[in-house]
Each structure stands twice: as C-alpha cells, then as structure tokens.
Amino acid sequence: MFESTQSSLATVPPAPGAGAPRERLLSLSTEVPSAAGVAYLAGLDLGAWDAFDRVLALTAWERHRSWFEGCLQHALVAVGGPAPTDSRDDDWARKEVACTLRLSTTTAGMRLGVARELTGRLARTGRALQDGAIGYRHAQSLTDALAGFDDALARRVEAAVLVGGHPQETLSEFRKRLARAVIAADPASADERHETAVGTRRV
Question: Is the entire prediction scored with pTM above 0.90?
Fold first, then answer.
C-alpha cells in the first residue's frame, strides 16, 4: 500500500471557476514528487482558492516534503560516507554533518545512521520515502526497529510492512503494525534487539 501512488481522496467535489488548480493539485497529491512539482506549489497563492483546494495543496506539499527528505538521505551519505568498520573512525563524519546542519554530534550521528540504512540495505524504504509514499518519521521508525536484524530478515520485515497498511494510516498505527511484524519475525529476541538498538544510537 505504501508503495502505491493511488489517490486516497475518495470524493472530489466539483472544481470552482476557471483557473482553479484542482486537476494539477490532484496529480501532485498522488504522483511521484519532483522538483517541477515543488516549483508549481511554491508559486501558488493559496488564499485565492477554496478550502478543498487548500487541503489538496497541503497533501501535495507533504508528499513533496517526503521526496525532499528522501533526497536528503543521499546527500547525508555523500558527506558522511558509508559506515566504517571501526566506529571510532566515524567521529569526523558525525562532526562534519553536525557542523553543516547545526546539530549536536549525537543527533548528527543518528541522522547519518538512518540515511545509511535508507540508502543501503533498506533502500526499498528509502525509495518509498522519495516517492512520497511514506514520511521521514515512518522511515526512521522502520530503520530503528530493524537495526538489530540481519540483512535478510530486515528486508523481509521491510517488505511486509511496506505492502501493508492503508492510505489513511496514522504514524501511530504504522508503528503498531511495524512492532507486530518485528515480533512475528523473531519473537524470542525482539525485546533484546530493541534495547541494543536504542543503546547503540545513544552512544
């Protein structure tokens, strides 16, 4: 479901007078985001349109924000590089990202860790983010939950989570469904993996 670009807007009222951007906004709310879409949205005067068109614009902006976040993950890895074998060699990368984004080194390390996952073994989630199908907090939740999994198991859970859900699923519902998928995949060590992942990210 999260890898689908079908519209979740079940009922679309008639468009207002000539010149209303409804058709274009409907497309931007459902299609894969792009720089052209951002340029179009940035040029809109939302005060000139009715309430429904404003909702469409908000939906389109949120979808394009996911696209931006997806692109940002690649930029983070371009600066910080792939994860080194020795974590001590990663200090410079965290400091570089921290300085560039005006973050603490801890937060920079967390952001870089998520980016490496989304551009690496969990690239399918990264693509879903860049396609606007999920938000950054969905992607971050998934990378955190799968931090202790081996690659094969992580990708199996990832696949199950990305094809499930429904268009109106909230972040809370997504996390609950993710938690169930994690436990179903390996119930014996689910709690241990979670504690290890949280502890690692705080180092």
Answer: no
